[in-house]
Each structure stands twice: as structure tokens, then as C-alpha cells.
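testing teh design pipeline on a random one, pls ignore if ur not involved
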């Protein structure tokens, strides 16, 4: 029987939980240092971290808020994150939760953050609807994720690459798609930033692949890219092996309007 997208997410992240705690692109990104600057959290706030993964957002927010609810669909991932953070903070609650069906009452949170995870959500429109529902009026939301280029061919290449390397990948949306979904759910943009994110290919491809054959398929896909694609994604090859490639990432701060 074929696995559902969410079963695939649980399987991949359950097996690779510790890799996401130590992954450079997850643990160190420049966006983590901007979180507090953009969000301007107050010590009285209750904050929700959706799909925490290795817990990097939760760890960043905990010193600046009254309470952080750290959630993830994958129990094994969340247990691993809790193990790493326990002893450092006493204001974090760990909750197994589906981003598309959050187990919280409406208007429960002063702020919500979701970082480098929505491309795993099969129904991003439900995620945005749920985020808006649990956010207080006037509350702030930060979305950080890999985004697909506006060019359909480049977008297809990016999503194909991600899916070949990680079966739990659903789809990277474009900025335009995110903007539309957020607007439909009563959210107003306050600030955003585009950045380019470069992956060290060997460690990136090994994080979620399950065999040498799978690694070879992903590598062949990148090596066979046309000139436009190689240029856009800055695919670097040395001695016939992919070394680096670069994708688009978007960070956006939104606020829930009074009528949202």
C-alpha cells in the first residue's frame, strides 16, 4: 500500500532526526538571527513554532517569550529535539501536531513561526488557514522557506530535484503563491527579504537519501541540467561531481488584520 505524504514525512524525519539538529542550513542560517529583530517579541507572549524539526526556532524564541509551544508532526523528531533542549529552558511545551490541523483554540498565540518546513506540507492552503485561525488579531507570523522560481521550467526542476532526494518533499511554492494564500487569510505583509541559499551538495544529498543509487539519480539529474538551469541554480561541478548548488529562500513577516 502506498504511503500518504504525511506518513512519508514521519518516516523520513523520524529516521533522520539527529541530522536536522546538526544540519548547518537548519542550525545556523542568518534568518535565525533576524527572527527576534523582526518579530520584536515581548516577555508576556505565547508563541507557536510550527514544524520545529531540530528545534532551532524554539531555541531562538524561548529566551524572549513567556511560553513557546514547539510542535512537529513527527513524534521521534520532537522527542529528539526535546532531549537536546531540556535543561536549557523551562518555558517550552512540546506538542505532536499537524500543521494543517492544529490542536489549539482560535486566537491562542501572539506570534507564530514556521521555518524551512512548508515545502513538506501537502495542503499549504490548510496550513495558512490554520495558522491564521490560532493567531490573535494583530499577531505576527514569520514564514521562512525555500521558494520556487517564478519560471515554470526552473520551478519544476527545483521540485523534481527535491522530490528525488527526499520522498517526503511535497512542493516548494513560489512567493506569488504564498502571498496570495496569506492575503486570502487576512494577513498583511510588513516586511520580507529574498536570499540565496547555497547547499554543500554531498552532505545535503546524504541527509535524506536511502541508497547510493538514489544519490546517483539526484546527481545525474543535476549534471544533465541545461545551461539556463545550471546558471540559475549556480550548480558547481568538480571532477564530474556536484559540489554546490544554490536555491531561493524567502523570509516574510505578516500581521493578522483586525478582520482576519
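output:
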Amino acid at each position: 500500500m502506498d504511503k500518504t505524504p504525511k506518513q512519508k514525512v514521519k518516516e523520513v524525519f523520524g529516521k533522520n532526526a539527529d541530522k536536522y539538529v546538526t544540519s548547518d542550513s537548519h542550525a545556523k542560517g542568518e534568518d535565525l538571527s533576524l527572527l527576534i529583530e523582526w518579530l520584536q517579541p515581548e516577555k508576556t507572549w505565547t508563541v507557536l513554532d510550527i514544524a520545529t524539526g531540530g528545534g532551532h526556532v524554539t531555541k531562538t524564541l524561548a529566551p524572549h517569550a513567556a511560553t513557546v509551544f514547539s510542535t512537529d508532526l513527527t513524534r521521534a523528531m520532537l522527542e529528539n529535539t526535546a532531549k537536546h533542549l531540556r535543561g536549557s529552558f523551562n518555558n517550552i511545551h512540546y506538542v505532536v501536531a499537524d500543521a494543517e490541523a492544529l490542536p489549539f483554540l482560535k486566537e491562542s498565540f501572539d506570534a507564530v513561526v514556521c521555518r524551512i518546513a512548508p515545502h513538506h506540507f501537502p495542503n499549504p492552503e490548510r496550513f495558512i488557514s490554520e495558522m491564521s485561525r490560532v493567531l490573535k488579531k494583530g499577531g505576527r507570523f514569520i514564514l521562512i522557506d525555500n521558494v520556487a522560481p517564478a519560471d515554470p521550467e526552473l520551478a519544476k526542476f527545483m521540485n523534481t530535484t527535491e522530490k528525488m532526494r527526499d520522498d517526503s518533499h511535497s512542493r516548494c511554492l513560489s512567493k506569488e503563491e504564498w502571498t496570495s494564500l496569506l492575503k486570502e487569510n487576512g494577513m498583511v505583509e510588513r516586511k520580507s527579504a529574498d536570499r540565496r541559499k547555497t547547499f554543500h551538495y554531498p552532505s545535503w544529498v546524504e541527509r535524506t537519501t536511502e541508497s547510493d543509487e538514489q544519490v546517483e539519480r539526484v546527481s545525474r539529474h543535476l549534471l544533465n541540467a541545461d545551461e539556463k538551469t545550471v546558471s540559475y541554480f549556480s550548480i558547481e561541478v568538480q571532477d564530474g561531481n556536484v559540489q554546490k548548488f544554490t536555491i531561493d529562500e524567502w523570509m516574510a513577516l505578516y500581521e493578522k488584520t483586525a478582520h482576519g
